[in-house]
Request: fold
Amino acid sequence: MGGQTKGKKKNKAKRKDPRSNGGSGVAGLSPQDRMKLKMQEKAKKKTAEKYTVEQLLEKTEECMDSLEFEMAGRFCQRALEVEPDNLLTLDLLGHIHSELGDTQRAREVFLRAVQLSPDEGHSKYMSLGQIHTGQEAVQYYTKGIQILLCMLEKHAQATAGAGAEAAASPLHDSGSEIPTARDVCVAYCSVAEIYFTDLCMEERAGDQCRQAIERALTYHPDNPEALQLMASYLFSTEKNQEGREYLMRSVDAWLPALKQSEAPPSKEDIEEEHTQSDIPPYESRITTAKLLVEAEEYETAVDVLEGLLEEDDEVVQVWYLSGWVCYLQMERAKEERTREEREESDEEREECEALKEAARSYLTKAKKLYVKLHCDDGPILEHMEQLLGELGGETEGEEGETDPALDEDFEPNSDDEEEDAMEH
Reply:
């Protein structure tokens, strides 16, 4: 009896063992989960045998360049399965998740990169700064800046005795592989923007904001976005004349060259190349137009807005601002005549009518586009209708045009499609 009892206990122990969490790691999983795990391991082995990590990352970047982020994520994930601690792969995957709007997964990937290499690589900290808000964002940006400054110092020391050729290398060339002073400037601008927005109610937020902008300009004195950010800060503190000076310095750094271009670049070209040039990205130039209107630099605002419309003519805010500027130019002409106490000449009357017609045309287009794109910005719509009412335009709701065709993104749904993409 004793032997039987002992045998039962031994058998009982053996039956329990497969349900433990040791061994191969599949114990306790359902048959479906075990099958899924086996398929993943098989796919990982197959990928490693057929493609190198470098090949997978090359395809990842190709897909990212063509905005196929779903497919890029698949290639990048395969590369990560082969080399789980590859920092470049983690960086790319984090950016892909960000592009797809999955900030939670992007955060997890970048934090994984931070754990693997906390004191190297500023990019992951800058990305975490973009994902987070408030003091958390400031902390990530600050860490990234520390790494950037350390890398710049090491590079300066390495090239100090390399002769005139190394000394003549452009410090602000963001296309180089080494970090640049421009990178530091952009990072400090990001910190300043946080104090200007998210943390604006914090104690000494204004001082922290200005300090960050001044540091940005120390590293890149002619950076248009840093100059514009200083202008915004000064306008907010009612130092309008000083703000206007910074604003015009910012615009003079890029607008003349853009106006002289025979074939203005597209919005996509500028967005892709703005880190290598002085032309700010599209959204930043919309802010430029707003600040120019606030500074009553109407003619320059018109130049900026015309360039924006050439790049993309389906942005409601740009059409609205164009109409608003024409309206303000018309009103200023009237005020000047009133101050001078004189009658309107035929030439002035024609100019005023032309401005009125232009304002009405821009605002009508803005309102139709607002309906077409299903915008949700009540204050802009209300102001457009108010202005159109004064100008004699339509103020009743309109059924804007709609595009029957929608963009269709390619969404791969099988390993075979990934294989096909690798072959092309």
User: Anything to note?
Assistant: The two ends are 72 Å apart (CA to CA). The chain has 21 helices and no strands. The longest helix spans residues 346-372. Residues 1-24, 166-176, 395-414 have pLDDT under 50 and may be disordered.
